[in-house]
Each structure stands twice: as structure tokens, then as C-alpha cells.
Amino acid sequence: MKRYTLQQAASLLGTGRTTLCQQLRELGMLDQNNLATRAHTSTGRLVVELREYQHVGMGQPRPYGKTLVTERGLMYIAHRLGRDVVTHREAANDAQG
Predict the structure, then answer these.
(1) Residue 37 structural domain
(2) How many Cα atoms are found within 13 Å in the side-chain-facing hemisphere of 91?
(3) Is 96 a domain residue?
(4) Is residue 97 a part of any domain in this protein?
């Protein structure tokens, strides 16, 4: 199953990441930290992956969650926001034409 970052999902929906995150918070799909809410992870629309980064001052890896949008979630979001999903092929054709 394909998963998209919030940036990729925003691009496919023809908007920016900040705008999409704000809209998803308003729909109750994301919390204030842009992490998926349980109602939408349990339905398979959004996934939170646990990742780590090396904090320079702390020395130890620090965990964080990254929200990803599933294909099912992308279609759901497009429907809720009244948008069409723009494929990469369509975007390339628009840029050439």
C-alpha cells in the first residue's frame, strides 16, 4: 500500500503542506502537533510511523512520530475537501502544455 508524506499529499491535492495540515486539523484528522488522530489511524486513512533523529546536544537518538497518508486516506481527504487528486502525469502534462 502506497503512503504519502503530508507534503506529497498536499501536492497531489493541489495545495501546500501548511494549508493541508490546517484543514486536516479543522476536520479533526490531525492534532495540534500534526499527528494523526486515533479515529483516522484505526480506519487506515492515516499512519504514524515512529522515527528517530540524533539530537546534537543530547547525544542519544530522540523518537518522533511522522504522519503519513494512505491511498485510502488521500481519496477520503480529497472527497472531504472537494478536491481532485492530481497525478504526477497530469501535472507534467499541464507544465508542458
Answers:
(1) 3-90
(2) 11
(3) no
(4) no
